[in-house]
Amino acid sequence: MRVVVADDSVLLREGLVRVLEEAGHEVIGSYGDADELLAAVFDLAPDLAVLDVRMPPTFRDEGVRAAIRLRRELPATGILLLSQYVEVAYAQELLGAGSGGVGYLLKDRVASLEELTDAVDRIAAGGTVLDPEVVAQLIGRRHDPLASLTPREREVLQLMAEGRSNTAIAKQLFIGVGAVEKNVTAIFGKLGLEDSGTDHRRVLAVVAWLQR
What we know:
Blueprint: E1 2-6, H1 10-22, E2 26-31, H2 34-44, E3 48-52, H3 62-73, E4 78-83, H4 88-95, E5 102-106, H5 113-124, E6 128-130, H6 132-140, H7 151-161, H8 166-173, H9 177-191, H10 199-211
Parallel strand pairs: 1-2, 1-3, 3-4, 4-5, 5-6
Helix pairs in contact: 2-3, 7-9, 8-9
């Protein structure tokens, strides 16, 4: 894929470039802030943009603002937001700006080539990738509506919200795919959500419900 990277930390930015290139991707742009990225990205039309959440000048939400604009004006470009800390509101805002092809990971995760490559591949395929800690906080913010879920259904919901397929969930929980499917059906029934049949739509439905 053709990728652009934006992060004010030179070390992290160059590290991301190296990891992405080692994974076989072409990094066509590397920038120190969101303004530099936005000034060039529309001519480049990359397949994926990797952005830090907080960048100059205010170090608040420049990366999120840039990501939302890219989702609106370059919908074919996948988005991967990186953050030092769990910032659930930013994850919700990004997910609410479009459907699929997005990710939100903690920076600690990108130290692993395998973790980053897996996330990039799933985003490129139109999936949604959420850091497990972000998912845990999203779920934890709404206790009452989830009270009807069994412990197993909560486990399946968390993995589903991370963008995992039924097969991947079954492998993670050491249960059959059929059992996962039954849990998914029960989850959507209890939450009043329809199963759209695609992985990233399931994630967005869950996140949208959590935002109510």
